[in-house]
Every structure is written in structure tokens, then in C-alpha cells.
From TrEMBL:
One Pfam match: TMEM82
Keywords in alphabetical order: Membrane, Transmembrane, Transmembrane helix
Classification lineage: Eukaryota, Metazoa, Chordata, Craniata, Vertebrata
Listed PANTHER family: TRANSMEMBRANE PROTEIN 82
Domain of life the protein comes from: Eukaryota
Gene symbol of the encoding locus: TMEM82
Transmembrane segment boundaries: 26-53, 74-100
UniProt-recorded name of the protein: Transmembrane protein 82 isoform X2
Xref: InterPro entries: TMEM82 (IPR031648)
Keyword hit for Metal-binding: no
Amino acid sequence: MFSLLSLPSWLPSLPSLEWVSGLPDVLLQGLVGACGVSVLNNLLKVYFFVVCANNPERQLEKERLRARWASLETVHLAGLALILTVVGVRVAAFVVLEFSLRSVSTLLSLDKGSRGSEKLQLYLVCQYSLGCGLTCGLSFLQEGAPHRTLNLLLGVGLAALLSTGARRLRQHVCQLYELHSGQRYCGVCLGLLAGAHSLPRLLGRALAMTFAVGNLAAVALINRDFLTTSEAVRFWMPLTICYTLLVIYMQEHPAQWQGPCGGAAQRRVQCKGAPWRTVLELGLEG
């Protein structure tokens, strides 16, 4: 006969309850990923603003970057964290691998003259993939940790601190960079005036390290679902062949596939003949 005393014995076996029990950890991973995207977005806006402020022909773009949308930034951060939470680490793993392969194949097929603008486009369009890479890396590194939730809470605190610092840097630069760089009494603005050109290179190194860890974590997370090595080989072999053929085709037809940001953005580059302007427009839209 059914008894309420036996209820706890079968309730934990429900998959939905297991998912709910792990929801806080997944949500914390999503918050870390969203904060990482926010840091990248704010630093790119700082770089674009400094470049526009130093060029009299880009005053309109400078004013657009100066516009403050604090409420939309909060909504964007919360929405991205929610999306990364719902997507899960398995889907995020495939997103990281797919973007990394496209990025490598794109960089290999680039001419030396257009490499700088294409890298900036990569930094702009990799934001969602960056969030997926951070969630994959955290899920893999924290798997089986005795104090996983506490570790993730500390990670969220550090990520929020970095995100707040990057946002305050962008606000400071957008409001006071021209004044401080002209009067030469602010160390931050003087540092950007002298070394802003090196900011994309630093961001590129940080992104390369993040995606390297994310790719290793993604492969490990995907392989975890296979019971034997033969199953893993049957999965990875056709996938590797397909992407190898895709890379070869992209290098033979660079005009159709150049740039990972899609055909629309690439057509704008070809039509306007100004890759930097297109990169700046994408940065303003982000």
C-alpha cells in the first residue's frame, strides 16, 4: 500500500529533480560566462572610442559610443546568463568547437593586409561563443569538486568585479578621455593614448587562451557520453573529415566564406570598401 513515508525514496530518482538540484551551479556558470562577455564588450568599446576620438572624421561614431544605455546593458547581461543556463554545457561544447574551427580556417585564408580588421570582427562575433567557452571550462574544471557551489560563487564574484571595472573604465573613457588626454593629468587616459593600439593584441591572447581551455573542456565533456573508444572514434571521424573538407573549400573560395560574421557583414565590407567602418558598425551594434 502506498505510504507518504515512502515518498522520499522515489522522489530523488526523478530526472527533473536532479536537474533542479544542479540548477544553481549551472546558473552560476552562466553568470560567469555573461560577465566575461561583458568585459570583452566594454574593452572593445573603449578601444573603438579612443580610435574615434583621435580621428576627427569619426566624431559621429564617437557620440554613438558615448550614449549610455545602462538599463539595456543590465537586460543584456541577465538575458545572456539565462540563455547560457538554458543551453547547457553539451550544446555549448559544440558551439565552442564550431566557432574555433571557423575562426582558425578564416585566419588561415586571410590576406596579410586584411588580417587586422578581420581579427576585430572575430572579437565582436565571438561573444556568445566566449560565454559558451567559459561555461564549458568551468563545468569541466569544477566537476566533482567537493565545494563546487562555493567555488562558483567565488568565480561569480571575481567575474562581476572584472565586469564592473571594465564598465567603469568605459564610462570614464567616454566621459573624460578627451579632456584628460588633452590636459595630460590622468594616468588611465594617458596610458590609452599611448598604448591603445596594443589592446586588440592583448584581447586576442586572452581569447586564445580562453578558447584553448574551452576546446579541451568541450572535447572532454563530449567524450564523457561515450562508453567505449570505438564509439568516440565513430563520432569524431566523420565530423573531422567534414570540417577538414569545409576548411579546404573555404581556402579555395575565400570570397564566399571570408569572415565568420556572416554573409551580410561580409557583403558590407566588399560594397563599401572599408573593413574598418564595418567593424566599427558591428561594435556599435554590439
